[in-house]
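pasting for the record
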Amino acid sequence: MILSFDQPLPDTELDQYLTDIEQVVLDSGAVQSVTTRRHISVPGEEVIPGLIATAIVEVAVADTDALAKAFSAPGVLEVIGRRQSRHPYKISWANQEALA
């Protein structure tokens, strides 16, 4: 899950969002692990057309059924919607096999 907030977000609010989304996805019981990381900015990236991440949420699951269960779990849309109403952002998905 690639998160791109429209405006800079205070560190405490981004930390809380990442904690909230991690917990609600873990609570689904369908995931093996969840890792969140902030985007590391580099000079010049702002001229690249396209989405620049604010943070990444990596969710490890056994299969596509578990992935669907994790993101349809109670609370996921609430966490996303609550943050979205205060600080607009875009979400992109990159579902793939483990990279390593």
